[in-house]
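Follow-up to my earlier ticket, as requested here are the two runs.
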Amino acid sequence: MIASLRGTVLSVELGGAVIECAGVGYFFHATPATLGLLRRGEEATVMTTLSVKDDSMVLYGFADAASKEMFGVLQGVSGLGPRLALAAESVLNPVELSQAITAGDTKQLQRIPGVGKRMAERMVLELKDKVSHFAGEAPVVESSTAIDAPTTAHPQVVEALMGLGFPEKQAQSAVEQVLAEQPDLDTAQALRAALAGLGRKG
């Protein structure tokens, strides 16, 4: 199990990054908030979880222990895999997820792409007693210029939304609306805003 990575950040993309450790570059998927803390050419440490399936091994990275723990807790829900868990943490941080689950706020949970009414209700039912301790663990997230500037945000955000399962037309429309209202958003911020908007529409 790869529990963490520490090394030089070689590249930062919209959906993940590469950190070189002892001459080996490791690619991991991460949320916009985590990626926003990384800067190319600088040393960084990320907590990681390796998801192993019959046909693949996928590494997920987190800026703090609470995010990594929540990622694992979420997957305790029947039918909720790592991809959906990462989407959940792309929209809501561990504290917000904890608050929504303990309060039974299924509408808030349905902001997460791929989470409908039934899944939201299942999350509340199965996790209500397992997430209360996250309430005091809000991660401190600072903005960064690691991810590309707004001029290239549009196509990358659309591609990321399509990767999360949204149709191209719907993703395109959501991103155009977000950037029209807030043109100064960087790529990570635009993705979060677009996800939030799509969640409300759903």
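Run two:
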Amino acid sequence: MKNLIYSLHKRYQNLGSNLNYFDGIASLALRLYLIPIFWMAGQNKLQHFNDTVEWFGNSEWGLGLPFPLVMASLAISAELGGAVLLALGLATRLICIPLIITMLVAIFTVHIQNGWQAIADPHAPFANMQVIESAEKLEKAREILSTYGNYDWLTSSGSFVILNNGVEFAVTYLVMLGALLVLGGGRYVSCDYWISRKVIKSKR
């Protein structure tokens, strides 16, 4: 029995050692996933810059942050610059830090009051009262659309949902950025890796 356990453990360790050669793929996958998210977020803020600044500073219907012009500029720079650097795999760990900060700000100023779910689903485990109450509203909206609209055409691209705007997506991106902070840009697939190799060679 001990021999069997040792053999299985040895094979498991060998599997881990062999997978180390492909560890760059995980980092690359995370980067490719996050690039369009931050690029589109930054572009949207930049294209509506005045509205973004006003939203950042307004305490009644916005975030109520101090120095909204500075904060908006920093957020846009982090998101657009972050997308570019993630695409190149350049300064990957470094750029993850301001991006993590933007996610934390988004979580605690925008999303946390709405609970976990991004899309309202009253049957999900983390459904709060806001989500549970959305079921009646969604059903009423469907009745109106079925009665007064071409419901089959309206739903041909997907079902109607209620956007709950909870922390789900922001936390997901935060976790991914945390993983990149540890993993870096990835072996073979990032500028960080090749710059590091160049620096090591130059010191020999």
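The only thing I checked on run two: The longest helix spans residues 23-47. Let me know what else you need.
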